[in-house]
Specification:
Blueprint lengths: L1 H25 L5 H22 L7 H19 L9 H26 L3 H23 L2 H19 L3 H32 L1
Helix pairs in contact: 2-3, 2-7, 4-5, 5-6, 5-7, 6-7
Length: 197
């Protein structure tokens, strides 16, 4: 009787350890999102720099296209069939982080269209990009994302100092390249390596 109880206690501990290990592994990032969003923002910022430099008629064309693609992607994500999986407390918290980020970004974009100068508005975008990178990087234990956060905060400060919007777009492109795209590539390569092993 006692050996059965000891066995069930040991089995219970083993099950709990497996659940904890599985919960830790559930918080992962394949890097694809950082690559997609980073590339879109990078191309929009770089295109804006080129449009300003060449005195194009619509300097914000790339951002308009980016906005349309963003609406399509977010709508798809909202309505796509979800795979049923066990949601943890951390999953729920990260969902709130995502929601808070999207709402904050939307308000900043709205402010740029209403009253805030674009150079300041895009600087504030880098501030919340950095905060988002820090939170997500901490959740998945990615040093590259957390380094990306520091780079985006530095980029925001540089944008507030530099008064020429054309160069602000270059700063934004560089900050997103170093803060989103490169960490995304690192995460994607790690994810591919995990799948192979």
């Amino acid at each position: 009787m006692q050996s059965e109880q000891q066995l069930s206690n040991e089995k219970s501990l083993e099950i709990i350890q497996q659940m904890i290990s599985q919960a830790k592994n559930n918080i992962s990032d394949n890097g694809l999102g950082w690559l997609i969003w980073g590339t879109m923002i990078f191309l929009s910022a770089l295109s804006t720099f080129i449009f300003i430099y060449t005195s194009a008629e619509n300097t914000f064309l790339a951002w308009d296209i980016f906005g349309i693609i963003t609406i399509i992607l977010l709508t798809y994500d909202l309505f796509k069939p979800k795979q049923k999986k066990v949601r943890t407390y951390i999953d729920d918290q990260l969902r709130l982080v995502d929601m808070g980020f999207i709402i904050s970004l939307f308000i900043i974009i709205l402010s740029i269209n209403i009253s805030v100068l674009p150079s300041s508005g895009f600087g504030f975008c880098l501030v919340i990009f950095a905060f988002f990178l820090l939170l997500k990087g901490g959740a998945v234990k990615s040093r590259s994302l957390m380094t990306g956060a520091a780079i985006n905060w530095a980029g925001a400060i540089a944008m507030f100092i530099v008064k020429d919007f054309k160069y602000d777009m270059l700063i934004m492109a560089i900050a997103v390249l170093l803060g989103f795209i490169i960490p995304g590539l690192i995460l994607w390569l790690q994810y591919r390596k995990q799948l192979r092993s």
